[in-house]
Design goal:
Length: about 500
């Protein structure tokens, strides 16, 4: 057998284990290898077919047991494949070739054998890194004493425990080694229809005053007329909505000595303000977010006008369509120089929309280690680990569904003296338009006493992004997520 044939049969064995053994006369070994290979392929096919859909399969793959199996299984298969390739080369008797052919054949065979290991090693590394990342961010109430207790256990027949919508509070915090506490300068509630993925993103401004707390809670007893504190020595205020988390954490005596109550209090407060139950929260460290943007190679967006930043206005993000690194993207989103909180909220929404559009699977995979390392420092959440199996398919629905947003900012809402009834009414309206049915509103708003409930179950139907015509915000304040981005 010539050198070309030896290498040809060896290459075929990389794709169909046992082929070289059959060619060399090792029939029993060849048939066993081919049978094992066929069983492996059939097992993978059965897994895909029984998963029901790509979204369900993706949900299954983030399960802890699945990731562990994938990591260990890939490592074992890689070693087995390597050994099979070495033995395949041996049984093809390369020693019968001329010396020059042996050198060339041995070199090429060695490279081919090592190359076979690469996909197995990459799969094992991705799976193990993913497992470590997910387990470091998401905890289960039974294993994590700080996770929320009393969560309804997900059931296979109804993982949402009767919910028609899932409400997740998305927070951007400014925690820093040089600043105590957490100020939530970005507060958005994503209300997602579990049947269709249609989502309403509800934005609340950081400077909302006289915040009302849920009746019967310790904060409501401390501030029965709304969140109000004496002005700071410098004339600023520490009783705005973005200070609720920090204040709650700083005053454990209000909660009978219990510490770390900020997240729970803010969830209750925003849920009460909007007339919704908040299921979970996810807090993103804004500067960790910059590292995530760097990890995917930056985001491309249109900067409407020059954005100045820095203590001495020494920084500048120049106007124009450009690819921004993480730090510039964050300054574009966060700078208040020559602008106001509401303009900043819109810029934050634009950065979020650009990231959602541009963080495609191919980009994430090619930069997986960087993304994983940045994400570890990025997110704090009380979403239970076991719910990821169901949230991943839902997230894939959201990518294909309608996402609209509403911002409770002037002139729609006076942040100094908010109309709580109006906030609650507009929230109900936008959720109703998103689902085509009355929304699940599980708690009364700040001035209401009754609980609204759903009157119909939405039917899953294909949805498209809703494009809003220019009209007064009073008539229809909802917007597509990236409406207004890149415009003066």
């Amino acid at each position: 057998m010539g050198a070309v044939k030896v290498l040809g049969w060896l290459a075929l064995s990389a794709l169909a284990p046992g082929a070289a053994h059959l060619r060399a006369g090792w029939r029993r070994t060849g048939l066993v290898l081919l049978s094992c290979y066929a069983a492996l392929l059939l097992g993978l096919l059965w897994t895909v077919l029984t998963s029901g859909s790509l979204a369900s399969l993706a949900g299954t793959l983030v399960d802890d047991a699945s990731l562990t199996t994938a990591a260990v299984g890939s490592a074992v298969l890689g070693v087995a494949w390597f050994a099979m390739m070495v033995h395949s080369f041996v049984v093809l008797r390369p020693g019968s070739l001329r010396q020059a052919e042996q050198i060339v054949t041995g070199t090429v065979a060695g490279l081919l054998t090592v190359a076979v290991l690469v996909p197995f090693g990459a799969t094992a590394q991705y799976a193990w890194t993913s497992r470590d990342l997910i387990n470091s961010i998401f905890k289960n109430p039974t294993t994590d004493p700080q996770a929320r207790q009393g969560e309804p256990a997900p059931r296979p027949e109804d993982p949402w425990a009767g919910r028609e919508r899932v409400n997740i509070l998305l927070l951007g915090g400014d925690a820093d080694d040089h600043r105590p506490g957490v100020r939530t300068d970005s507060m958005n509630l994503a209300s997602v229809d579990v049947a269709t993925g249609s989502t309403v993103l509800i934005s609340l401004p950081r400077n909302l005053e006289e915040v009302r707390f849920k009746p019967g809670t310790p904060m409501a007893e401390r501030f029965p007329g709304g969140f109000r504190l004496p002005p700071d020595p410098g004339g600023g205020r520490s009783d705005l909505l973005n200070s609720v988390w920090e204040y709650s954490d700083a005053h454990p005596e209000i909660f009978g000595g219990r510490r770390h109550q900020g997240a729970r209090v803010l969830m209750e407060t925003i849920g009460y303000t909007l007339g919704l139950d908040v299921d979970w929260y996810a807090l993103v460290n804004m500067w960790g977010f910059a590292r995530l943007i760097d990890a995917i190679g930056g985001v491309t967006l249109t900067v409407e006008r020059d954005v100045v930043f820095g203590r001495y206005n020494e920084g500048l993000v120049k106007a124009g369509a450009r690819k921004l690194k993480g730090a510039d993207a964050m300054w574009y989103a966060r700078s208040r120089t020559n602008s106001d909180d509401y303009t900043r909220m819109r810029r934050q929404r634009c950065v979020l929309g650009a990231l959602l559009d541009q963080a495609d699977p191919a980009t994430v995979l090619t930069r997986f280690n960087q993304v994983a390392a940045a994400t570890k420092e990025l997110i704090q959440t009380d979403i239970p680990r076991d719910m990821l199996t169901h949230l991943v398919p839902l997230a894939m629905k959201v990518q294909q569904a309608e996402v609209t947003s509403i911002q409770f900012v002037p002139p729609l809402i006076n942040t100094g003296s908010p109309d709580w009834d109006k906030i609650r009414t507009l929230t109900r309206k936008e959720i109703r338009q998103s689902t085509g049915a009355a929304p699940v509103v599980a708690s009364a708003g700040p001035t209401a006493t009754s609980t609204a409930t759903s009157t119909a179950t939405p039917t899953p139907t294909p949805t498209k992004s809703r494009k809003k015509a220019a009209q007064p915000q009073e008539d229809d304040p909802a917007r597509a997520l990236t409406d207004g981005c890149g415009q003066l």
